[in-house]
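Preliminary data (for renewal application), fe (ii) ion complex.
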Amino acid sequence: MDAQTFLRSLEEEILQHDAVQHPFLKRFASDTLSLKQIQIFGLQHYQLVKIFVNYMTNLLPRIPDEDAAELFREVFDDEFGQHTIFRSHPSLYRNFLKGLGLPEESWGRVKFLPETTQYLEAHLELTREADFIYGLGIVGPAHEFAIPTMFNDLITGFKNNLAVDDEDIEYFTCHVVQDEEHALVFNKLITRHVETEANQKLLRDGAMTCLAYRKTFWDGLQRAVFEETISS
Ligand SMILES: [Fe+2]
Ligand SMILES: [Fe+2]
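Predicted structure:
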């Protein structure tokens, strides 16, 4: 299979993956949600948001392409907020948490679900230690490409249940747009390295491992948001 055909078929597979089509996301988009339920989601998900850029900084020095830093630059500019830290992605996410009425002191006092800890530990280790092609599978297809589809369900849930300003959910809406661009940046790098079947397997393994952790993360949220809370 040539590199382009491989990538298209991987993307098809990702869109149908249990993590991307997770019942948690479907329920989030269709159920009536209490503020408390959205807060529980918001604080667990914040832990992933805070750390995402570390995956890229772990990976970058191990990519052999001379223009890798230049290509990553476009994504870093969005992640760090370009000219102002107030528009960094974690900062946009904190606007969301504030919009949910969560005081700053609660952001750092989150009791991690075991699934959240598992996700973070595995991703930090894999992006640091695994082959860079495997790492590209994690950050490119399994994050940048998959996120717009997953976030659309979350955005529907916010709009149905919260009287939020557009600014409060900008973290999510901006990713639906930006991550499509980011996925293209990663695809540019990836296509150079997936000419062989062995490398295609390596890249796919990275993406599928990442999505398996994502599925587990949503499993944890499904329990915490829908099974352990009493709607108020
Ligand atoms: Fe981001
Ligand atoms: Fe992104």
